Amino acid sequence: MNDQRTPWYLKLHWQVLIALGFGLVFGVAFPKAAEDLGFLGDLFLRLLTMIIVPLIFTSLVNGITSLGNARSVGRVGVRTVVYYMASTTGAIIVGLGLVNILHPGHGLHIGNGSLPEGLNATSQSLPVFLLHMVPDNIVSAMARGQILPVITFAILFGIFLTGLNDERGRAVQAVVDGVLDVIQRLTLAIVRLAPVGIFALLAREVARSGIDVILSLWRYFLVVGLGLVIHAMITLPLLLLLLGRRSPLKFVRAVLPALATAFSTASSSATLPLSMECAEQEAKLPRGIVSFVLPLGATVNMDGTALYEAVAALTIAQVYGVHLNLTQQLVVLLTALLASVGAAGIPMAGLVMLVVVLKAVGLPLEGISTIIAVDRVLDMMRTATNVWSDLVGAAVVARFEGSTG
Ligand code: ASP
Q1: Whole-structure pTM value
Q2: Atom of ligand 1 nearest to the CA of 304
Q3: What residues flank ligand 1, with Cβ below 6 Å?
Q4: d(CA 240, CA 395)
Q5: Which residue segments constitute the domains of the chain, with CATH numbers given?
Q6: Region 187-199: what's the mean pLDDT?
């Protein structure tokens, strides 16, 4: 779509940048109109959400079968998981470092804002978490959009399909491949709406969240923001350069529409169709790697969310005047890692999973009300970081599988 002869204003990354700028200005200048136009953003979001389940299923199965055999699947799987865990741990360490130096919780008061419904009910122990990764009914998991169980089923289905080495196996593969192709064509059509959708979602968000809220929590906001910036603009580009052997500037240009969509939708899952499209068509990553690494990443790899969980938990501890020693901060690190894996790729999932981290170190859940006011803006920022890390991960894994751009 973006070949050399296309004039600049028709190229998607320019359109997306313009949409971001317009959205910001429009939301401030015309809040009422921005609210009214919000449905255009919702429409874009629904179109993306509509294709997530079939996309995740077919792309994972396709990714696994195109890797050929269980051994390659295992190798790519291990590399993917190692990258995801390492980059997320790196993000948490940046967050913990900053919060210990800058003490954003000092001077904040315990908030009296209300907590989202059902927050108290969130308590996932490790066995329960693992249990829920396996669907008891795949159709109902798909119908409810529960992505982790769908991923488990898709991986198992893909692996056993690879073992079916006859014409029936190839027929099933051809069907899955065909469905994936159709979904990707559909994605291409939806992508054309991205500038409008991004504009409308951002303008409404700007109109809704006042700057005064951010000012009241500026130190906390700054620490999370700074952490995300360090991770997204220093750590991940370094990984991309050193391990992925790609120019970060060129790569970011290729995947910009996905990053802008992540920012305005605050949903990694809804961004998945665009991430895959940009990674394959613009960044020229191999299809087999993209279709395996990115659907997994959209659900389990959330660097921004993990960093945010760690900063938020320690900020709340500071608000309550509780000192967390090194061992307790290690518990925060591990639970933030787990919580980021368990968080769904939807808006506010990170806030809900914060409960797990707070419970692990015995902090009161009411502390969440102190920081909730700026959550939406931080959600947009951490989602863009999450998706950026997924894409860098795809480039790194692709390089180790023998492909450079
Ligand atoms: N909204 C984030 C995502 O979809 C998750 C979170 O709330 O941190 O990646």
Answers
A1: 0.88
A2: 8
A3: 266-268, 302, 305, 343, 345-350, 379, 382-383, 386
A4: 7
A5: 2-400 (1.10.3860)
A6: 89
